[in-house]
Amino acid sequence: MVQQPDGGKAEADRPRIVVTGNAVMDLLYRVRSLPRWSEAVPASDVTVLPGGKGLNQALAAARLGARVHLLSAAGQDQWGVQLKETLVGNGVDVSHFHLREGASTSPVAVLVAPDGATAFIGWKQPRPLRLRDTDIEAVRPVIDGADLLMATLEISPAILLRLFQIAAESGVTVMFNPGPTPDLADLPEVGKLLPYVDILVPNLEEATLLAHGAGLGRLDGAEELAAALHGTGIPVVCVTDAGQGCAVASDEGTFRSPAFPSQVQDTTGASDAFCSALGVSRVVGAGLRTAAAYANAAGALTVRTVGSSSGLPDARAIQRVLSQAKSGPVTPARGDVDE
C-alpha cells in the first residue's frame, strides 16, 4: 500500500484524507451472554480503549500512510486528552479535533461474546460535542485540499450535508459509511446525502434500510443490494457482509470479493479498518478488485485483536495476509488499475 514517509514515499504523494465521526472511550466487557433485565452477567475481562468510528477510521488511514485530519469533538477531560494523545501518536492532524470545555467525553459499552460478536450501549452525540458552524467553516480549506472525505452517521445528516456540499464544490471524493444503522425516521434526511456520495460502504442491515428509503423494494443479499443502490446513481457501492467479504457494484459491473480466514476475537472496528483501507486504496489509484481485497484483509486483521483501535493494521501486515493467501502481492500505486 502507501509507504510511510521514511519508506521513501514523498510527502506530496501521500493521500490527503479528512475523516469525520465520533471519538469516544470504549469500555469493553468480555461476556458469555447478554444480560436479561434485572440479570447480572459476569465479565471475564474489562478493557478501556479509545474508539468511535471517526477515531478508528482516522487511525486506520494514518497507519496506511495517509495524511489525516480528524474533524470531531470530545470533552476537555482525562479521556478527551487521552484520545487526542492517541491521535497525535499515530500521526493524525488534530487541528480540527476539538476538546470542549465543560463537556464530558462519551463512553460506549462494548459487550464482546466468546465468538467475537459485539453489542453496543451508547447514545447519540450529546449536544456539547456536536460540530458547530464555526467548526465547519474552519475545516473548509482542509477539505478543499483533500483527496477524500470519509464520513459516518455518528455526525448528524444536516452537518454531513454541508460537509458533502463543500467537498462537491472542490471536486473531493466522498466516502460515506452509513453507520451506526439509521432509524427509519432519519431515512429522508440520510437520502439527501446520497447524491453527493461517490463511494457508499454500508453493511447488510444499513444497505437494506437505504434500499427501503429509496423505494427499491425488498432485496436479498449483498450483491443485489449493491447493484440496486448503484442503480440510484451512486458511482461505487460496497456492501460489507461480515465473514463473507463484500459485494461491489459500479459501472464496471458487480462482483463479490471473498473474506480472508481469521481467528475472531472481537469484531469491533473491523468495518472502520475496511473503510479506511478501501478509501486509501482508491485514492492512490487501485482498481476496485484490488481495493476490495485490500480492505477485506484489513478487516480480517482487525478482528484478531480485542479493542477497535488497538487492532488496526498497517500496510505491511495487510500485505502479509494477501501474500499468505497466495493472492499475489497487492501494492497499489498511483494509476494502478485492475486487469
Describe this structure as you would to a colleague.
This protein is of the alpha/beta class and 339 residues long. Helices cover 33% and strands 21% of the residues. The chain has ten helices and 13 strands. Strands 5-4-1-8-9-10-11-12-13 form a nine-stranded mixed β-sheet, with helices on both faces. Mean pLDDT is 89; it is low at 1-8 and 327-339.
Concise account of the structure shown:
The protein is an alpha/beta fold and 339 residues long. Helix content is 33%, strand content 21%.
Task: Kindly report how far apart the N and C termini lie.
Answer: 18 Å
Rounded to the nearest angstrom, the radius of gyration is 19 Å
Helix-strand pattern, N to C?
EEEHEHEEEHEHEHEHHEEEHHH
* Distinct helical segment count: 10
Sheet/helix structural class: alpha/beta
Mean pLDDT, as a whole number? 89
Estimated share of beta-strand residues: 15-25%
Question: Which segments are poorly predicted (pLDDT under 50) over 5 or more consecutive residues?
Answer: 1-8, 327-339
Question: What is the makeup of the main sheet?
Answer: 9 strands, mixed
Number of strands: 13
Q: What form results from the Cα inertia axes?
A: globular
Strand order of the largest sheet: 5-4-1-8-9-10-11-12-13
Query: Helical proportion?
Result: 25-40%
SSE order and pairing:
Elements: E1 16-20, E2 24-31, E3 43-51, H1 53-63, E4 67-75, H2 78-89, E5 97-100, E6 107-112, E7 118-121, H3 133-144, E8 148-152, H4 157-170, E9 173-177, H5 187-191, E10 199-200, H6 204-213, H7 222-230, E11 236-240, E12 246-250, E13 253-257, H8 270-283, H9 288-302, H10 315-324
Helix pairs in contact: 1-8, 3-4, 6-7, 8-9, 9-10
